[in-house]
Design a protein that fits this description.
By secondary structure, the protein is an alpha+beta fold. It contains 2 helices and 4 strands. It has 2 domains: about 50 residues, no CATH class; about 30 residues, no CATH class. Helices cover about 30% and strands about 30% of the residues. It is elongated, with a radius of gyration of 20 Å. About 5% of the residues are buried. The structure holds zinc ion. The site of zinc ion (ZN) has 7 residues, from loops. The site of zinc ion has 7 residues, from loops.
Length: about 80
């Protein structure tokens, strides 16, 4: 994305393409860089916007792993 918005738009919203929603949605306008006076489309604010699936999967895996350790302390506690 190479869209640059004016600094006045920072903190407001703009319409931009969301790769997760696969359509144009409302995005928060973020500062391009600290000290910069230019804005760029930030996070998607669409209520239907789904969180990144890879993060969710990772969290799920971690939670399952954690539960396994709690249920089978002997399997994972042999190093003690
Ligand atoms: Zn989105």
């Amino acid at each position: 994305m190479s869209e640059h918005l004016s600094g006045q738009a920072i903190g407001q919203t703009c319409t931009s393409w969301c790769h997760s929603c696969r359509r144009f949605t409302i995005h928060r306008v973020d500062r391009v860089a600290v000290g910069s006076h230019a804005g760029k489309p930030g996070p998607c604010l669409d209520p239907g916007h789904a969180p990144k699936p890879e993060v969710t999967k990772q969290q799920q895996r971690r939670r399952i792993e954690q539960r396994r350790r709690e249920m089978n302390p002997l399997l994972f506690g042999h190093h003690l």
